[in-house]
Amino acid sequence: MSNAILDQTTLVSADPLAPVLGGELPAPLIDGTTVRYVNLDYAASAPALQEVSDYVQSVLPYYASVHRGAGYASQISTSLYENARRIVRDFVGGRADDAVIFTRNTTDSLNLLAGCVPSEGEVLYLDLEHHANLLPWLQRPHRSVTAADTVDATAVALDRELAAGGINLLAVTGASNVTGEVLPIGRLAEIAHAHGARIVVDAAQLAPHRRLDVSGDEIDYVAFSGHKLYAPYGAGVLVGRPDWLDAGTPHLAGGGAVKTVRVDSVSWATGPARHEGGSPNVLGAAALAHATQVISGLSEADWQRHEGELRTALIDGLSDLPEVTVHRIFSEETDAIGVVNFSVNGYDAGLVAAYLSAEHGIGLRDGKFCAHPLLKRLGLPSGSLRASFGLGSRQDDVERLLGGLRALISNGLGTDYVVDQGRWVPAVETRNFPEWAPHTPGTAGAAPCSTD
């Protein structure tokens, strides 16, 4: 495809599908000018929907401790919190008796489930998983399967391993956080059940981009995070069958998680309370629930068209650049969400990310994306780049990224960069940061992978 992608007459989804905070955020550049910040890092943490932010402000005056308070505000907060369970259950198409447990994030949800899986079986997972859906299973009997060259072959490999017996849980991602490629979770659930196993889906990436149908696809458990679903208020959720959860190890020992307590013994509660010890994140749960309502109100056709056009435009534009390689897991074209992984020949991924930020006002992710086994298998042991987008994205975001990459390839770096505490930064930092957010070069994080 030619540079016609930049012709405004060809663009359909020029505007955001839903307003988000920070959509017009000014970003200072290293040359002293300012541009609109381009957020292409939705897969790490999505911005708050404007409607969610407004909603939190409206309910904040009623915030109080929940469940055992007789006061007016306490009763309202309790209703708000418990009603959020129903809203989230409806959003994922859950069964009437599915438990809805609020957590901190997807990682917290999967660790909670890991303490509830019966001990007599093993957990099976793919090598393409985010660490959140890999590390919790290492603490118990487990097996892994290497994803094959195609989705179909991968499903066959999982079927073969499940047929060998001894597995009681299949843990899979709904969509890769590295490449955006989507797995057929309904089909995988059918395979798991045929061999007497259950399935848990890490939907941290899938839920913000696709409708979920836990009941229709016969998914046993699903986990996702508010901060990726346009509600960055510190809440995540685990939804699924209650029997394992009611018999499992309480995730957080503390007040509210018990029936009775003596100085030397305890009788634990069942239901969500068993795993929600301590004062819950009422506002986080309410924000997450409201975000699901906003998303549910969108036209699915418009939603998918908006995202599909942006992804197609970006991949086509990157494909026009011989120096850029787009990475994916499967050799065939598959369904994919708004996540694109790539690298620029001759440049370290972290250096490209620093350049795009300092010289073009573009934010995207570089590194190993908390998926070390997958990056190694893709031949990217030192990491790559990931551009991701969502409801607040616009065609201009794609154009800005492609323009920045063309400038890099044609003209090289516009300033000098150095490695400070493991991260590339401008050798001389001239950008101003808000007074309330003092900035020290290198503190952007030296961790080997992102924490999404």
TrEMBL record:
SUPFAM superfamilies: PLP-dependent transferases (SSF53383)
Reported cofactor(s): pyridoxal 5'-phosphate
GO function term, MF aspect, one: lyase activity
Domain Aminotransferase class V, residue spans: 38-401
Cross-referenced Gene3D superfamilies: Aspartate Aminotransferase, domain 1, Type I PLP-dependent aspartate aminotransferase-like (Major domain)
Catalysis: reaction(s): (sulfur carrier)-H + L-cysteine = (sulfur carrier)-SH + L-alanine
InterPro entries: Aminotrans_V_dom, Aminotrans_V_PyrdxlP_BS, PyrdxlP-dep_Trfase, PyrdxlP-dep_Trfase_major, PyrdxlP-dep_Trfase_small
The entry's keywords: Lyase, Pyridoxal phosphate
Family: Belongs to the class-V pyridoxal-phosphate-dependent aminotransferase family. Csd subfamily.
Protein name: Selenocysteine lyase/cysteine desulfurase
Species for this entry: Arthrobacter pigmenti
Upper taxonomic lineage: Bacteria, Bacillati, Actinomycetota, Actinomycetes, Micrococcales
